[in-house]
Specification:
The protein is built from 13 helices and 6 strands. It is α+β, with helices and mostly antiparallel strands.
């Protein structure tokens, strides 16, 4: 369900000085590109001293909530900081549709090792950290794409880009005479393209493109017979499923519609097992009842 929030409600909920400063930051172009995350909106707001703060706003448990890296937000999490107000005003200006059940970034489980390394990275000088990221991004397309997305230089994939991905999938021809090694290599390249795609802002069109790729991959395995059960092909299928699950977690599609599409994909894959046919992987997205429907 979508809820309505207006400028008057925001103005009445914060200190007038905070509201005025937020208006000035927004008018001064201090807000970078925004991305929908977990039913809310995330973006980077730059203070007058050029310090950038990542901030998220959304409706959590019926209450409008903001999460920001700034000291003011840490000191009083119950109040919207100037960066959260800036992002909220931009969202209202652009007609953003607020979900009534958003998921705040702080509630998303983070791998302990990722958290540990993030804490280490936070101790580095900014320039050194930037060079470290850049050195790795040059040789890793996924990291490069994620970096450009975070910086607001890449948006959601265009229709033309998604069409190119589908064309790549369609170009994978498999017969009973195909060399399994060549098929596996092509599958790994397909996974890489989808993983790069998944680094960008998620849309329903992106999700449907990944489902198209999964369906096509399933049908390509049929002519291989028993070879399709080899470990290499299982790894490719698992990687395709992981991309699909990740996009579902970020986009939160309608569960009934998602189950219907997945059941159709699984049925079409017979006699091989679809790469998406592991219902328990979808528990974070669908919950027990819908996962049970997938298993029926």
């Amino acid at each position: 369900m979508v809820v309505r929030i207006d400028v008057d409600a925001v103005r009445g909920a914060v200190d007038p000085a905070v509201y005025r400063e937020a208006e000035e930051l927004l008018a001064g172009g201090r807000l970078g590109r925004t991305v929908e995350v977990g039913g809310g909106l995330i973006g980077a707001v730059h203070d007058e001293d050029a310090t950038a703060y990542e901030v998220w706003v959304g409706v959590v448990g019926g209450a409008f909530t903001g999460e920001c890296e700034c000291a003011a937000s840490e000191a009083d999490p119950e109040e919207l900081c100037v960066h959260a107000v800036t992002l909220t005003l931009a969202a209202l200006r652009d007609g953003f549709h607020w979900s009534s059940a958003a998921t705040a970034p702080s509630t998303v489980e983070v791998d302990p090792e990722v958290r540990r390394l993030a804490e280490v990275a936070a101790t580095l000088p900014v320039r050194r950290l930037a060079m470290l990221v850049a050195e790795h991004a040059v040789t890793d397309r996924r990291l490069e794409t994620r970096l450009l997305t975070y910086a607001g230089q890449l948006g959601a994939p265009t229709d033309a880009e998604l069409a190119d991905v589908r064309a790549t999938v369609d170009g994978l021809t498999v017969t009973d005479q195909s060399d399994p090694y060549d098929v596996a290599k092509a599958g790994q390249q397909l996974v890489e393209e989808l993983e790069v795609l998944a680094q960008r802002p998620v849309t329903e069109a992106t999700l449907l493109t990944v489902e198209y790729a999964a369906r096509r991959w399933d049908t390509r395995l049929g002519p291989l017979g028993a070879v399709a059960d080899d470990e290499d092909f299982e790894e490719i299928g698992s990687a395709l499923r992981a991309v699909h699950v990740r996009l579902c977690v970020e986009l939160r599609p309608d569960p009934d519609a998602l189950v219907e599409r997945m059941l159709d994909i699984v049925e079409a894959a017979e006699p091989v097992t679809s790469c998406l046919d592991l219902p328990t992987d979808y528990l974070p997205v669908l919950g027990p009842d819908h996962v049970a429907a997938l298993g029926d």
